[in-house]
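Box 3.1 A note on notation
Throughout this textbook, protein chains are presented in two layers. The first layer is the amino acid sequence; the second is a token string describing backbone geometry. Keep the layers aligned when reading.
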Amino acid sequence: MKGIAASELILNSDKSIYHLGVKPGEVAPTIITVGDPDRVPMVSQYFDEIFFKVSNRELVTHTGRIGNKNISVISTGMGTDNIDIVFNELDAIFNIDFETKMIKEDITSLQIIRLGTSGTIHEDIPLNTIIASELAIGYDGLLGFYSDRPHRFSHIQAEMIGEVKGYIVPGSEYLLEKIARDYLKGITYTASGFYAPQGRQLRASTSQTNLIEKLQKMNFPDNRKITNIEMETAGLYGLGHLLGHEVVSISVILANRVNGTFSTHPETAIKGMLEECIEKIAIL
């Protein structure tokens, strides 16, 4: 049996994987992802020791330990297109033999925790609230390029927005219980962009008028509603299910799209979320 072609599994001259620039053994199986590269050192400052650092483009990786637990933090940049790169390369580091280019017989399941920011579409959700995504609804198109496995995805059917069909996928029940038990649980809308795909209009007009109202009116079992908007979670959850990894997304609310307000102290809110979650991640 032939291994994966060099054009598909691309390695650098030092045998690190193409975009992340890391090799097997340089990333821990418990991984925190953040969007902003500058947020990586905000997380790793809580490590007792950092023993690996690398950066390439917007992708920054720090690996270290808290107590006896090894943890990595990696920036993904924005959007599910970047998630596609980061998630597949992380999986390859653990589950593909870089010498033979063959998939390993024993697959490693990773724990991936996104710590990010988002905006709410409900007037009664205060700024600086921490929300854990029980479900993610994606209108980004990424999962349409992968072979669907319906038995692993939620049975809920997403409504159409214009000509775009959504998909819905749940987060890890294990990580939701271990890390996010005390947080507000929500349904997260993952958009394919920051402006028109989230209902914002500057000079270019949007094709979807009243998008926020449409999202507010979507109904789910047990009268649950979409709570917040961001740009990565559905891609993380979808690939997590397809590749067999435990994934959870936790966000601090910085914007209220209904009230038109934004957190007056965003860095303080982010720091508080990071400190709370890192403490829980360290004892997983």
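The chain has one domain: 30-281. The helical segments are 39-44, 80-95, 173-180, 211-217, 233-243, 266-281.
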